[in-house]
Amino acid sequence: MSETKIATVAIIGGGLVGSLNAIYFANRGWKVDLYELRPDMRLPEQKKLQRGKSINLALSERGLSALRATGLDLETVILDSAVPMHSRMVHLGKEGRQMSQPYSIHGEHINAVDRARLNELLLDQAEKMSNVTIYFEHQLHQADLKKGSMVFFQGETKSEVTKYADLIVGADGAYSKMRAQMMRKIRMDYQQQYIDTGYCELYMPPVMVNDQPHYALDPNHLHIWPRHTHMLIALPNPDKSFTCTLFMPFDMFENVSSKQKLIAFFQENFNDAIPLIGEDRLVDDYFSNPRGALITVKTSPHHYSDKAVIVGDAAHAMVPFYGQGMNCGFQDIQVFHKVLDAHNIKPTVHNNSISGLATALAAYSDERVKDAHAICDLAMYNHYEMRSAVTSTRFLARKKLEGWIHLYLPKLITPLYSMVSFSTLPYSQAIRRWHQQSFWLNVVLGAAAVTTTSATAWVVYRMVRGPPSPPPRQSSAAISGAVSSGLKTAANVANTSVQSIGSLASSAANAA
Ligand code: FAD
């Protein structure tokens, strides 16, 4: 006898990506079981424990678009308490001279949002939906993917409990247990890379003026103190404080091992930040907050048959320098559900199978793996850009030229940052476009360099030889020879620059 029932999805991980996915699945009529390892973060005693974890995040168009597509006004709620950041503020030299670098010539901005508040909002919303059940303190221990069974360690006693689902989604972060279960079943390509840089969070309190809190720095900027091998950044919080993150190689963290060394190190590198953070608080935070490691994880495929799929950091963890980890994870969810729509996947199980799901999951992997890899590489490249390139005159001139051409010929050139942060263009296409644009930009720069050099040489020559005598008649062959040699030189200059740009991302990644 044939049997039809409502499909159940188990989502492992109630972080940002898992809880958004629960809302999407509930919207399409599935029965949703969301399993989270930690206790409910909304409980007062849990809030205290969150100190020292990355507390604010840059939310940009990809993330916003995924929130918007729920149709639940989540975007408005989160943006209500977000702080817009229109530009980078680069703090240069010992005296901290500030240089504002707008993110977009059209005034677009990214948003500093409170990570915990966003997660709580998503959990609140998921919990409101009648077809969602959230199981806190459920740690996935193992899964039999073929049978759809999962064993969890539950509560403080870690007693074992077995649960079932028709589809299991791993949204359990960079060290995903679900991914490990899938790797036992399929030939999943897997790469992980730690970078030498770690991070530590520091708190910059509001400045009190007439008992009123004010921001210690301009709030509409993402502040960066780039120092080549290391850097400090600061993102604004709605309560007028900033969360600062110190990124530096682990051996530097080890060398800065006493209060005196820390103060001397800050005086040398981030002197203007000391009075804003406060010496005592700086010492306190630096020595008591955890040091985080930064990992890149690439996987392929992201799915197993019609049984399982991984999303968010579980599928693609990246270093945080493009501010895209969560944005990319949110976009995973939007893309995933578009693929389910395109394959007309219904929330029903007929004779233990969901019609078309295997094909849909394969299509999702096909579409998303290349984009996940692309943003992992770009995030690594931005590590170099943030800690170093933002201080280089060549880099700034190039950015100005890019921005200027984009203003007048937006179809010809769109800056990479805009494609990544202010659009939903697939990341792999953004990289492809960037390479094409770089070629033409370098042709222009090469031609400009050749013209300027030739003009200067001509002026110098004339100054040495005196004013020109009437020009002798030149044969057309001589003229076309001169023109083609000029073009060749321009092309050579362009080619050399293009090659260096082409290898920039990978060499920066290696250097990082
Ligand atoms: P996670 O947030 O890691 O959530 C995974 C969840 O799964 C957790 O709740 C965990 O408790 C749970 N879990 C784990 N194992 C199990 C298990 N076995 N069973 C059940 N549950 C389990 N991204 C941005 O877009 N913008 C930024 O500005 C930005 N800044 C960052 C700054 C720093 C310093 C760092 C480290 C990251 C930053 N990111 C940023 C990246 C962003 O934090 C991550 O990409 C995002 O949190 C990924 O969400 P996720 O839900 O996939 O994973």
UniProtKB/TrEMBL annotation:
<keyword id="KW-0472">Membrane</keyword>
<dbReference type="GO" id="GO:0006569">
    <property type="term" value="P:L-tryptophan catabolic process"/>
</dbReference>
<keyword id="KW-0496">Mitochondrion</keyword>
<feature type="transmembrane region" description="Helical">
    <location>
        <begin position="439"/>
        <end position="461"/>
    </location>
</feature>
<comment type="similarity">
    <text>Belongs to the aromatic-ring hydroxylase family. KMO subfamily.</text>
</comment>
<dbReference type="GO" id="GO:0071949">
    <property type="term" value="F:FAD binding"/>
</dbReference>
<protein>
    <recommendedName>
        <fullName>Kynurenine 3-monooxygenase</fullName>
        <ecNumber>1.14.13.9</ecNumber>
    </recommendedName>
</protein>
<dbReference type="InterPro" id="IPR002938">
    <property type="entry name" value="FAD-bd"/>
</dbReference>
<comment type="pathway">
    <text>Cofactor biosynthesis; NAD(+) biosynthesis; quinolinate from L-kynurenine: step 1/3.</text>
</comment>
<keyword id="KW-0274">FAD</keyword>
<dbReference type="InterPro" id="IPR036188">
    <property type="entry name" value="FAD/NAD-bd_sf"/>
</dbReference>
<feature type="domain" description="FAD-binding">
    <location>
        <begin position="8"/>
        <end position="337"/>
    </location>
</feature>
<feature type="transmembrane region" description="Helical">
    <location>
        <begin position="6"/>
        <end position="26"/>
    </location>
</feature>
<dbReference type="InterPro" id="IPR027545">
    <property type="entry name" value="Kynurenine_monooxygenase"/>
</dbReference>
<comment type="function">
    <text>Catalyzes the hydroxylation of L-kynurenine (L-Kyn) to form 3-hydroxy-L-kynurenine (L-3OHKyn). Required for synthesis of quinolinic acid.</text>
</comment>
<dbReference type="Pfam" id="PF01494">
    <property type="entry name" value="FAD_binding_3"/>
</dbReference>
<keyword id="KW-1000">Mitochondrion outer membrane</keyword>
<dbReference type="GO" id="GO:0019805">
    <property type="term" value="P:quinolinate biosynthetic process"/>
</dbReference>
<keyword id="KW-1133">Transmembrane helix</keyword>
<keyword id="KW-0662">Pyridine nucleotide biosynthesis</keyword>
<feature type="transmembrane region" description="Helical">
    <location>
        <begin position="408"/>
        <end position="427"/>
    </location>
</feature>
<keyword id="KW-0285">Flavoprotein</keyword>
<keyword id="KW-0521">NADP</keyword>
<keyword id="KW-0503">Monooxygenase</keyword>
<keyword id="KW-0812">Transmembrane</keyword>
<dbReference type="GO" id="GO:0004502">
    <property type="term" value="F:kynurenine 3-monooxygenase activity"/>
</dbReference>
<dbReference type="GO" id="GO:0005741">
    <property type="term" value="C:mitochondrial outer membrane"/>
</dbReference>
<dbReference type="GO" id="GO:0043420">
    <property type="term" value="P:anthranilate metabolic process"/>
</dbReference>
<keyword id="KW-0560">Oxidoreductase</keyword>
<dbReference type="GO" id="GO:0070189">
    <property type="term" value="P:kynurenine metabolic process"/>
</dbReference>
<dbReference type="GO" id="GO:0034354">
    <property type="term" value="P:'de novo' NAD+ biosynthetic process from L-tryptophan"/>
</dbReference>
